[in-house]
């Protein structure tokens, strides 16, 4: 039986791919203006970014345990192997909660084939992991083969991103108030990456064009090969800059296999409008 792939809305995969590969997506919670929403259910990214530009300070919470348990129970009851790929445990408690729910389900269905996998990634970074896992599931790859692929992605996936306004990182405690003020005045944009499932600053540059160029340089430096891989770009309501980055990648590398999506509410609530992120494997997966 084909393995069911489950993810949550932090993976920022477009609906078209979710439908095509029968991926189940669970909603993270977004709290804004004293209202609570289910991400991509009753709030969309553009709406959230409008609120943020008007001064709202949204918060997020993990996928409700009841939804996780209900989804895993349904798979177990139907004898359906399932892998739930979660947002990094370094920035969300969803992974830990999902493991607890999995164990509860296994008490009732001890023979169920269920796994919870910590992506140690965010946004389209683990969206690419989910996408690859779902493709392999549809191709008939085994449960263990899919987990092996996910482990490769976890070990070799790179995240490089920048934000348009340091104020949002300030709110999240990622930069000091002085750094945010100086960055805004000097039009300094940080380049950040993810390591061991957590966000870290890399460099500070002046001007968007320099930042995009440096992001592509870093990708070329870190990747052993940019052939035969899918490159991901996600953006927080900035299609123009996302297109500029895509065009630059094609010009510099020749790779046209680029997936572009909008950053959803769960990640955008912390990074803010105008965020641009780049994802790729530093070592391509060997054909099995």
From TrEMBL:
This is DegV family protein. InterPro entries: DegV (IPR003797), DegV_C (IPR043168), DegV_domain_contain (IPR050270). May bind long-chain fatty acids, such as palmitate, and may play a role in lipid transport or fatty acid metabolism. Gene3D superfamilies: 3.30.1180.10, 3.40.50.10170. Signal peptide: none annotated. The chain crosses the membrane at residues 258-281. PROSITE patterns: DEGV. The keyword Mitochondrion does not apply. Keywords: Lipid-binding, Membrane, Transmembrane, Transmembrane helix. Pfam families: DegV. The keyword Transmembrane helix applies.
């Amino acid at each position: 039986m084909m393995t069911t792939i489950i993810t949550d809305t932090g993976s920022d995969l477009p609906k078209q791919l979710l439908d095509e590969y029968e991926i189940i997506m669970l909603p993270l919670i977004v709290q804004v203006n004293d209202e609570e929403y289910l991400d991509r259910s009753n709030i969309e990214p553009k709406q959230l970014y409008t609120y943020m530009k008007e001064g709202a300070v949204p918060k997020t919470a993990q996928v409700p345990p009841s939804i996780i348990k209900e989804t895993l129970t349904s798979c177990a009851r139907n004898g359906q192997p399932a892998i739930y790929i979660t947002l990094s445990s370094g920035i969300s408690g969803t992974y830990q909660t999902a493991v607890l729910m999995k164990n509860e389900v296994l008490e009732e269905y001890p023979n169920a084939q269920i796994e919870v996998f910590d992506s140690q990634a965010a946004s389209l970074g683990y969206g690419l992991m989910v996408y690859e896992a779902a493709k392999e599931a549809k191709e008939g790859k085994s449960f263990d083969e899919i987990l092996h692929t996910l482990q490769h992605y976890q070990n070799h996936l790179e995240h490089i991103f920048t934000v348009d306004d340091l104020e949002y990182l300030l709110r999240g405690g990622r930069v000091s108030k002085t750094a945010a003020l100086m960055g805004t005045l000097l039009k300094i944009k940080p380049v950040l990456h993810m390591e061991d499932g957590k966000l870290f600053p890399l460099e500070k540059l002046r001007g968007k064009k320099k930042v995009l160029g440096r992001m592509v340089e870093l990708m070329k430096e870190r990747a052993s090969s940019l052939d035969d891989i899918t490159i991901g770009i996600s953006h927080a309501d900035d299609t123009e800059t996302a297109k500029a980055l895509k065009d630059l990648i094609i010009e510099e590398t020749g790779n046209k296999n680029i997936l572009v999506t909008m950053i959803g509410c769960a990640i955008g609530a912390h990074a803010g409008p105008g965020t641009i992120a780049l994802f790729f494997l530093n070592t391509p997966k060997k054909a099995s």
